[in-house]
């Protein structure tokens, strides 16, 4: 049994770790043949991608996937700690599972993901959720098959959570949820320690994957017919710093762009180390998508300082305009937190004015949520939740207005769209443009899913575009 501890999770040093080649324990291959599993994933793309590895590990054990948790023999919650409501959703689901387990005594229930890294969550599970069979940390995914086997054989709760990152495992099996678009991890963890954020505690220190491992994974995806890769990391701009003296995200993007892959995306970029070299590489290669997620969090310098974001409103805007001016047709999206402890009306107005100025193509807006163990959770907060909700509405009014205005500018234009499916409701095709806009469109020709086609935009909505296919090539 390994229990999590934030004090340990917070430490950063140059401790060595090994790059290991994952090998599945042959003794348990297909041991649970025919059993059914259901994974519920909360949180970010990294968690979604972890679930793609977890699903594949379960299938090696012999499990098969089902769409309804009521039909499953094993239910795994891949959880997120980022905000209180993510927590509440997972605990709500645990409540439902408790009832289910009363009827189905052999049901195996597991918890993994970021909540598993929280000591308070694990102690609650030990105390009040004894029906949970196992808890597995974010650094322990490679142990999943053996932990499940142990939980079943010993019929005893298993808690395996390393507080700190262990070795980095390559070649975990994967079953991807999309046949054309793939996630590729390039860096794990985060060393930024924004004062409100749990990620540096739940995901450990920044560790880059070796470039040859990343490039080999992308070569395989190309062979398998993938059209788009999204390079993942909590802060992809830090890529390479822990491994190489002179190889960074700009170099990696360039090496990938030279390959025969039509679309490359990456997320998330912290404004702090977004270099000119990166901007130039993105501008130079047509297969690096002109779509940048650049979280600003706040437009107030005072709040940015309290958040520990390491940039000012002015330096953010300078970067914003450099990106806009250098990358033709670029769309910029962002994340914004309102109601950080002590945020005044004036601080909030700075954020509102920044949103007016940047006219983002997309924005994810959140009310600050105090997370246990983070410095911001200890700052005195005099702003009521009602006031915070009002600010969120006011901000959403502004950002939504610009989503629509930006989309309207595209009417009459031709966009390249990766065809992803046919929507049930309207019997239209749908897919995403290079700038990541959802496009619903008609076509006189039969289209293949995974094709990249030209679509002429006929009308604009706040969150999508309608159009008509012009050609397929
Ligand atoms: N690594 C990314 C962020 C990942 S978390 C980055 O730094 O850009 C995604 C978003 O969740 C953050 O950008 C932030 O806007 C929001 N977030 C993180 N912690 C939060 C908290 N405690 N309360 C509210 N929103 C939070
Ligand atoms: Fe959290 Fe900041 Fe790291 Fe993003 S950069 S994951 S917000 S600590
Ligand atoms: Fe949530 Fe963990 Fe991702 S806290 S946002 S699942 S890294």
Quickly name the level 1 CATH class of the largest domain: Alpha Beta
Number of helices: 13
The CATH architecture of the largest domain comes to Alpha-Beta Horseshoe
* Mean of all residue-level pLDDT scores: 95
Tertiary shape = globular
Helix content: 25-40%
Gap between N and C termini? 55 Å
Structural class: alpha/beta
SS strand fraction? 15-25%
Distinct bound molecules: S-adenosyl-L-homocysteine, iron/sulfur cluster, FE3-S4 cluster
Q: What strand order characterises the main sheet?
A: 3-2-4-5-6-7
Name the CATH superfamily assignment of the largest domain: tm_1862 like domain
Radius of gyration: 23 Å
The count of domains is 3
Counting DSSP E segments of at least 2 residues, the number of strands comes to: 21
Structure description:
A six-stranded parallel beta sheet has the order 3-2-4-5-6-7, sandwiched between helices. The protein has a five-stranded mixed beta barrel with strand order 17-18-19-21-20. The protein starts with 5 loop residues before the first helix and ends with a strand. With 473 residues, it is of the alpha/beta class. The relative contact order is 0.09. It has helices at 6-10, 45-60, 84-103, 119-128, 144-154, 199-202, 211-223, 249-257, 276-284, 301-307, 313-326, 345-358, 385-408, and strands at residues 19-21, 36-41, 64-65, 74-79, 108-113, 134-136, 158-160, 168-170, 181-185, 187-188, 207-208, 228-232, 263-267, 291-293, 331-338, 362-367, 414-422, 429-433, 438-442, 452-460, 465-472. Helix 8 packs parallel to helix 9 and helix 12 (345-358) packs parallel to helix 13. The mean pLDDT is 95. Helices cover 33% and strands 22% of the residues. Bound molecules: S-adenosyl-L-homocysteine, iron/sulfur cluster and FE3-S4 cluster (F3S). S-adenosyl-L-homocysteine (SAH) binds at residues 82-83, 196-197, 234-235, 268, 270, 295, 297, 335, 337, 366, 368-369, 371.
């Amino acid at each position: 049994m390994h229990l999590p501890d934030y004090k340990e999770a917070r430490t950063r040093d140059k401790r060595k770790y090994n790059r290991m080649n994952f090998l599945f324990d042959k003794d348990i291959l297909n041991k649970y043949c025919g059993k059914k599993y259901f994974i519920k994933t909360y949180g970010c793309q990294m968690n979604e991608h972890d679930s793609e590895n977890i699903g594949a590990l379960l299938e090696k054990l012999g499990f098969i996937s089902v769409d309804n948790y009521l039909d499953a023999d094993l239910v795994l919650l891949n959880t997120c700690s980022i905000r209180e409501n993510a927590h509440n959703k997972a605990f709500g689901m645990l409540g439902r599972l408790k009832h289910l387990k009363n009827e189905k005594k052999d049901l195996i229930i597991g918890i993994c993901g970021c909540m598993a890294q929280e000591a308070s969550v694990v102690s609650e599970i030990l105390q009040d959720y004894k029906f949970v069979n196992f808890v597995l940390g974010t650094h322990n995914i490679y142990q999943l098959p053996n932990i499940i086997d142990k939980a079943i054989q010993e019929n005893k709760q298993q808690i395996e959570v390393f507080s700190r990152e262990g070795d980095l495992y390559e070649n975990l099996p994967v079953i991807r949820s999309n046949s054309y678009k793939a996630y590729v991890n390039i860096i794990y963890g985060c060393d930024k320690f924004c004062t409100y954020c749990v990620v540096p505690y739940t995901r450990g220190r920044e560790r880059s994957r070796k470039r040859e491992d990343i490039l080999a994974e992308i070569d395989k995806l190309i062979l398998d017919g993938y059209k788009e890769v999204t390079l993942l990391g909590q802060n992809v701009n830090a890529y390479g710093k822990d491994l190489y003296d002179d190889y960074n995200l700009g170099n990696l993007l360039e090496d990938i762009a030279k390959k025969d892959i039509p679309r490359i995306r990456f997320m998330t970029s912290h404004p702090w180390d977004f270099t000119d070299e990166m901007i130039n590489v993105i501008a130079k290669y047509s297969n690096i998508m002109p779509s940048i997620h650049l979280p600003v969090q706040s437009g107030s310098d005072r709040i940015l300082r309290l958040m520990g974001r390491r940039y000012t409103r002015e330096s953010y805007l300078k970067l914003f305009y450099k990106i806009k001016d250098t990358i033709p047709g670029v769309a910029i999206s962002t994340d914004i937190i309102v109601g950080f402890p002590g945020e005044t009306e004036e601080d909030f107005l700075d954020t509102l004015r920044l949103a007016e100025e940047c006219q983002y193509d997309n924005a994810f807006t959140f009310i600050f949520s105090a997370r246990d163990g983070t410095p911001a959770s200890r700052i005195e907060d005099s702003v009521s939740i009602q006031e915070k909700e009002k600010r969120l509405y006011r901000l959403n009014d502004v950002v939504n207005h610009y989503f629509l205005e930006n989309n309207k500018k595209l009417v009459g234009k031709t966009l390249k769209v990766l065809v992803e499916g046919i929507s049930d409701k309207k019997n239209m095709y749908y897919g995403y443009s290079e700038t990541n806009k959802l496009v619903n469109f008609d076509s006189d020709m039969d289209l293949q899913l995974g094709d990249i086609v030209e679509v002429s935009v006929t009308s604009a909505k706040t969150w999508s575009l309608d159009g008509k296919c012009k050609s397929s090539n």
